Here is the input.
Amino acid sequence: MPGGRAQARVGVVTSRLVVVGASLAGLRAVQAARRAGHEGPITLIGSEEHLPYDRPPLSKAYLGATGTPDHFVTEQDLAALEVDLRLGCTAESLDPGRKVVVAAGVDIAYDSLVVATGASPRSAPGIPDLDGIVTLRTLDDANDIRRRLRAGIEVVVVGAGFIGSEIASSVAGRGIGVTLLDAAPVPLVRAVGETVGAALARLHERNGVRLIQGARIVEVGGGGGQVTGVMLATGEWIPADLVVVGVGAAPATAWLGGSGVGLHPADGGLLCDEYLETSVADVYGAGDVTHWPNATFDVTMRLENWTNAADQGGRAGANAVVSRQARTAYSTVPYFWSDWYGSRIQFVGYAAADDVDFVEGGPDDSRFVAFYTSGERLVGVATLNEPRKIMKFRRLIRDRATVTDAKALLASLARPAAGLRAGA
Amino acid sequence: MRIIVDRGRCTGIGICESVDPDRFEVAADGSLVLTSDEYGEDEREIVEEAVRSCPAAALKLESVS
Here is the structure.
């Protein structure tokens, strides 16, 4: 099988790998298992009807006028990897005693299992079930929103996190009126902290989109079953033909209830060790669903981003099929990016730092670099429109560099004067 | 082997640079710069990892004839 021949035969050739979740993490698990030399059967189970596709564009370019879905692989690619792909097939329960996953009423036996079921959108409290109130997670959700977006409507986005902000940017880019509401005094605090969250929030106003912070919805108006607007605690009525709720996502682990797999008491995510194995032997976790101890920061974390889903999926898939002694611990410097109004936002590292300082530019500039430090250590960097700089700091953070090292690197990256660039 | 960059797909997300910084660098305008688009067998593993890591599927490999 492709990619397997050149590598040492470390897999148990007769063992069966089952991967639940056919998005990025699950797909990478399957591909990495083959690369690691696994020659046994592989079953990939996905609850959606679609082949694995890329989610980040769904809130960005795909909401524009001409987006097309990006599938990672074709059926032929998966057939070449000898993967038994079962789409439209929802996992219902896990019985670790019998080593069986029940999906769509059928027992699927495994020797090793990777759970990559991702996260489901949280619902906002007090939001009724009316036509025109939607969430965005899947391709079907995005298609539904695209169908509803048309000239002259008014859109309200509830939640000014990255997804909500990208949606607002995409909708505004089509010339459609949009208002962003966020319950918190400052958005994005968990993702990037208060200093940078406040700076990014200003991008909305600078691009003509109203962001109402500290917004509390007291009533959602409807007529004939269709949403008509939202009433805020301040008494302000905001008309809406479409309300997109983007208030975060929770690990999709309800199907594991009663299985004995240890789940996080707060959000129900999988509790995994450094090898990404759950509390149940031979059951691994990957992607948005997974809490694990990240040795880069000596912190247990759960990440909801593309880079982690890809890398963690690959590591879980390989660890699930090699001998226990051959497994590799997973650690990473988290990285995510977001695109709003033609600006590129990038973040590397860990936002829960002691201090955050703008070291180049500031909250009102079209470019900035912000350092996150804990003690002497650089633990994170946020940039706006500085794509040349950010990745160099990702390596520095991995190597546990000090803020002094980081400032030296930043000085060495000083851009040539504009006159020189123009003459080049 | 040679690396092909699909300029229509690449948006300068930069994961390739963090995988193989000696070869890939995102420029200040977001465009991707390669120190060399050809590589030898000893570099195959890291280049393949960089190609796989691209969120935009903008990198491809082809044989140099």
